[in-house]
Each structure stands twice: as C-alpha cells, then as structure tokens.
Amino acid sequence: MTITSKSVGLRCFLLLILLVLSALGAIYFGPAKINLREIVRIFQHGLTETEILKPQVVIILSIRLPRIILAGLIGAALAVSGSIFQALLRNPLADPYILGISSGAAVGAISVIVLGYAASGWGIPLFSFAGALFTIGLVFYVAKTRERINTNTLLLAGVIVNSFFSAVIMLLLSISSMQDLHGIIYWLMGDLGQADYNKLVIVLPYILLGSGALYLYAPKINLLLLGEDEAMQLGVEVERVKKILYLLASLVTGAAVSVCGIIGFVGLIIPHIVRLIWGNDYRLLLPASFLLGGSFLIIADTIARTIISPVELPVGVVTAICGTPFFIYLLRSRKVL
C-alpha cells in the first residue's frame, strides 16, 4: 500500500485525537475527585490570585498535568527509539534498552540515592542521563572496528556492558539503607510519581529534537530495510546513517530513562501494533509510534495511580502486565516481523 503525505497526516490526526482524549481522561481521573466543570473553568478562564493555592488547582496544575505531559513524552520516546533499534538491529525483539543504556542510567541514579543527593530535584535525572551517555560512548567504542559498526558486535558489546552495570547495581543495592531501597526499587520498576516541570525541562528538547531528527531519516530507513548493499547502491551512506540513527535513538532513550526509570514493553509492542495496522513504512511508523506510545503510557500511568488508590503502582508494572500477553499473542500468531 502506497503511503502518501495525506494518508500519513490523516492517520496521525486520528492518533493525535486519541492522545488528547487520553490526556483529558488522565486529568479527570484520580484519587481526588474534581468536578468536571471546575477543570474546564481552570483551563478556560484562568485563575485569580486568590485561587492559585486552592487544593484542586494544585492537584491539576502542579501534580497531574506535569505527570501527564511527562508520561506522553516518555511513551513517545520509547516507542520511537524501539522502532529504530528494531530496524537497525534487524531484530523484532529489540527494545530501547538493548544496548545497556538502562543499566548505565540506573547506576547513575542509584549512586545519587545512595550518596544522599536524591533530595535535589535535579540530582537523579542529571546523573542518570550522564550514566546513559557514558554507556552509549562505551558501547560504541567497544563495537567500533575500522570505522564500521557491526550489528552483532554492537549487540554483544551491549550485553557485556549491561552485565557489568547489572553487577554494579547489585553492589549498590547491597550497601543501600532500607530507607533508600524503596526509592531505588520504584525507580528500577519505572515510576512517574515524582514528575514535575523541572523534569520536563530536562527531557523535552532531547525527546522532541531527537525524534524530529529521526523522522528526517525515515526514507533512508526504508531503504536500509531492503538490505545494506541495496541501500548503498541507491545512494545511502550506510555506515554514516547507521551511526547517526544509533546515536539519536540512544540519546532519546537515555533522556527518557533519566527521569522515570526503566519502563518496559512500550518500545517493544507499540511499533508492532502500528506495523500490524498500517505496515512497515517508517514515514508513517515513526510519527504513529510517537503518538500511540504517548497515549499508551498516559493510559497506563492513569491505571497505575487509580486502580488500587490511594496506593500507587509503578507504571512499569502496568506496562508489563499489558505488554506480556500481547507479545505472547504476537509470537504465537507469528505476526512478529
């Protein structure tokens, strides 16, 4: 089926509507019940100075709204980077954490918690992102041979680095206090409970600019799917394009992991859902994955904070519960590409 700009725009518009509806539902649902008319008034007419500190205003604007926006960005980032890694590694089971990025970020975040600097709102995200960047550089250094990046070598380098950092994580867990363990475990399971506007400032440019840059390469990704030799004959600088795509997808993943921890299955199943519905053309697959990934994680996080209210689940638990049976279905029906 031929993909045109009009068909891409129409389908993305439908997914944008789903994203908006997911966000509106997330604003309304929560442990604290807020009248729908009050929500509409807050967004439509603004606030007077005396209303700024009203409980419902604080809940909507300071707690739910940044969490919803962050969930949308993280879901979009993981879905886009997952689709890129699946194409480049020719592995339908590839996900955004396959190169050990998550474990490197985890070491950075856990180190901050263990050292007692977690109280700073910027500490965990910044050190986590630094750990992700270090891991990216290390994996690329190990995998690089004669200016080429071999896919199998890259995967092996990711496995080795991931194993090493997993051991470091176990070491840090063993020397952590009981007070720190709760926060560490929530971070490792993926948690959006600490979302605020500071974290949005950290991840927004990386995710939006990185995803936009990846979309510019969609036609070349389509050619790479034909095979590297065929793509080279059609004018694609294969090694250069692969390096850029790996780097951009890794940066997007690192930014996402740095503020919310490890949230599984989003980058694994969302690209497959889009492929099953609309095919494997990356001119549509990337923007559709971006929008659907955002909607999925917003819905999952809404479930996580309401299903056993007032207790909140880590959102990674919900995505795993939803993702596992879906992926088993894909494997059993042989619809994994």
Write the SSE topology:
Blueprint: H1 5-28, H2 36-45, H3 55-88, H4 101-115, H5 123-143, E1 144-145, E2 148-149, H6 151-174, H7 178-189, H8 197-216, H9 218-224, H10 228-233, H11 238-260, H12 266-278, H13 282-306, H14 315-332
Antiparallel strand pairs: 1-2
Helix pairs in contact: 1-3, 1-13, 3-8, 3-11, 3-12, 3-13, 4-5, 4-6, 4-7, 4-11, 5-6, 5-11, 8-11, 12-13, 13-14
Description:
This protein is mostly helical. It has a single domain (5-332), classed as ABC transporter involved in vitamin B12 uptake, BtuC, CATH 1.10.3470. The chain has 14 helices and 2 strands. Strand 1 (144-145) and strand 2 (148-149) form a beta hairpin. Helix 4 (101-115) runs antiparallel to helix 7 (178-189), helix 5 (123-143) runs antiparallel to helix 6 (151-174) and helix 8 runs antiparallel to helix 11 (238-260). The protein starts with a helix and ends in a 5-residue tail after the last helix. The model has no long low-confidence stretch (mean pLDDT 86).
Which keywords apply here?
single chain; 337 residues; mainly alpha; ABC transporter involved in vitamin B12 uptake, BtuC; two-stranded antiparallel sheet; 14 helices; 75% helix; 1% strand; globular
- Unreliable stretches covering 5 or more consecutive residues: none
> What is the level-2 CATH architecture name?
Orthogonal Bundle
Proportion of residues in β-strands: under 5%
Percentage of residues assigned to helices: over 70%
CATH class equals: Mainly Alpha
Outline of this structure?
The chain is an all-alpha fold and 337 residues long. The chain has 14 helices and two strands; from the N terminus they run αααααββααααααααα.
